[in-house]
Amino acid sequence: MHPGYGFLSENAEFAQAVLDAGLTWIGPPPQAIRDLGDKVAARHIAQRAGAPLVAGTPDPVSGADEVVAFAREHGLPIAIKAAFGGGGRGLKVARTLEEVPELYDSAVREAVAAFGRGECFVERYLDRPRHVETQCLADQHGNVVVVSTRDCSLQRRHQKLVEEAPAPFLSEEQNAELYRASKAILKEAGYVGAGTCEFLVGQDGTISFLEVNTRLQVEHPVSEEVTGIDLVREMFRIADGEPLGYDDPEIRGHSFEFRINGEDAGRGFLPAPGTVTTFTPPSGPGVRLDAGVESGSVIGPAWDSLLAKLIVTGATREQALQRASRALAEFKVEGMATVIPFHQKVVTDPAFTSDPFRVHTRWIETEFTNDIPPFASPAAGEEAEETGRETVVVEVGGKRLEVSLPASLGMTIARTAAAGGAKPKRRAARKSGPAASGDALASPMQGTIVKVAVEEGQQVNEGDLVVVLEAMKMEQPINAHRSGTIKGITAEVGASLTSGAVICEIKD
Q1: Which of 41, 63, 421, 508 is most deeply buried (CB count within 10 A of its CB)?
Q2: How many angstroms separate the CA atoms of 316 and 211, rounded?
Q3: 100 with 81: CB under 8 angstroms?
Q4: What is its EC number (predicted)?
Q5: How many whole angstroms separate alpha carbon 159 and alpha carbon 355?
Q6: CA-CA distance, 134 to 248, in Å (whole number)?
Q7: How many Å apart are CA 305 and CA 319, to the nearest integer?
């Protein structure tokens, strides 16, 4: 049983059930998954292994008051992190004491939604750090190798957008410490299989252990490309009891992975579900594509935003960047927003391409010049005419679902429904930007309300939280666009909003 890299791949109970059924589990031992999946326990393992660590709580906190107390003792900023999760979900960074309660509540909600458990712990947050990780393999005979380092610093909302191998612009001493600490952590945990040790590297060169991902990573292809090692094949060999038979491999060349996400880079990377009307990937030397969509695929708001992965490799980092620029220019995805325009811009940005490497995990939010225009979808009629498809809303078992249909079939359904006294609702065309203007506060995206922070008649200031939306597994706060009094609010927790839907009005 190979679990891929979804949530089941890090589920110790599932791994144990596979073994109990008499099957071979192609992954780490259940106890190692359990120990390293608990981020607090993982910190204890790292401490015993002598890995570098910043200050953190020894156990999960019981509430926002404990978070504030930690911040008062150790200083700001701090990171509030899901104890049983990862991948950026359930991770919030507090830079002021006043925002701790809301960020703590948000981290708990995201953790429960993503991992089924809401416990969180707290640690000092290295400001403007790089995210550097090691791809590791460990066999059943006590051998551990580091396949390669990777840099994953280009992130939004603490989730990766671009990864590369090897991690560039590190000193020999930093590389040596990353290799040493990674091997020590995995040996201390009794680890077997493929795993990734993640670290933060501060502006002053400080290295701090972050977590171990007990599975194959989304970004694993870049390590394969620069070593020639098939990581999935190695997982099967290890599960079959074979020794690795080699030491840390020599790195050959440089490789980038660009995540092609369904997000609107011109609107702050808001999730943008929709229908892929055209999907034409690039090709050529050094270009590899791992994709889960095709022309006609419908991407709903309940799913992760990852559509495909573009992997580009060259003999040097410079050549890989040149090839990436060409491949991204050729990549054609139509019908919905993607982050391709961001990738096209970042591969020519000196902060990313040159030494000194100035990218860090919040570079996109704080320093990147985002002049990318918002995605403008065609009007509903134009979309149906140009693509021969349209989207209708149907109700199944009390739930509303968006369904992409050939335009002719959609019209047939409309006529049939009309004859029966009911008419299916067509989805309104998505607006190219938030419709907050004048008094009206409108939803900038499609999503589900998970929190309402105001009530009718309440006074708010510009920037105050009004509601929190969830889409594509991530929360998005919607803040007041002006100061005034809340009027006409109809938002309820659990309700679905379309892009452009009016949440309330804020009047003088």
Answers
A1: 41
A2: 29
A3: no
A4: 6.3.4.14
A5: 24
A6: 11
A7: 29
**Token digits of residue 187:** 């040996």
**Cis status of the peptide bond prior to 356, with omega within 30 of 0:** yes
DSSP assignment of 269-328: SEE--EE--EEE---STTEEEEES--TT-EE-TTS-SEEEEEEEEESSHHHHHHHHHHHH
Host H or E run for residue 110: helix 100-115
Peptide bond preceding 243 in cis form (omega within 30 of 0): no
Q: Which of 109-113, 217-221, 433-437 has the highest mean pLDDT?
A: 217-221
**pLDDT value at 429 more than 50:** no
Q: Taking the alpha carbons of 125, 131, 132, 136 in that order, is the dihedral positive or negative?
A: positive
Q: What is the structure's pLDDT at 47? A: 96
Query: 394: buried, middle or exposed (CB in 10 Å: 19+, 13-18, 0-12)?
Result: middle
pLDDT band at 396 (very low <50, low <70, confident <90, very high): low
The residues that bridge with 334 in the sheet, in sequence order, are 278
Q: How far is CA 45 from CA 51, 72, 201, 267, 496, in A?
A: 9, 26, 20, 41, 42
Distance of CA 6 to the CA centre of its chain: 13
The dihedral through the CA atoms of 39, 40, 46, 51 has a sign that is positive
Taking alpha carbons only, the member of 458, 469, 472 closest to residue 505 is 458
pTM: 0.77
- The Cα–Cα gap between 266 and 444 comes to 12
- Measured between alpha carbons, how far is 31 from 28 in angstroms, rounded to an integer? 8
Q: Express the helix, strand and coil content of the chain in percent, nearest 5 each.
A: 30, 30, 40
Residue 231 burial (C-beta neighbours within 10 Å; 0-12, 13-18, 19+) = middle
Mean pLDDT of the chain: 89
